[in-house]
Amino acid sequence: MNNSQKEIMLIAQEECAEVTQAISKVFRFGMDAKHPTEERNNQQRLTEELGDLICMIELMIESGLIDRNEMLHASGNKRKKLRSEEHTSELQSRQYLV
Q: How far apart are CA 88 and CA 63, in angstroms?
């Protein structure tokens, strides 16, 4: 792994933490809530953080760290797994896993 790839991985790791924090705020305060010093609500913040993470995933692909097809295959496998698990009844009833 070269220095550029290491930097991409480090930033991706930071973005994962920021997505985790944004999801946590949604659970604690709701999608529409916002901190008094923030202009964005929690939904907007989560959307932005997910966009940042997607950017880093794309850079991981472009730099050769991961293979796009293998990643998409893993994503499909996760959907199949979620379809078969009991705790996803709400997802299944809303047709998210079709």
A: 35
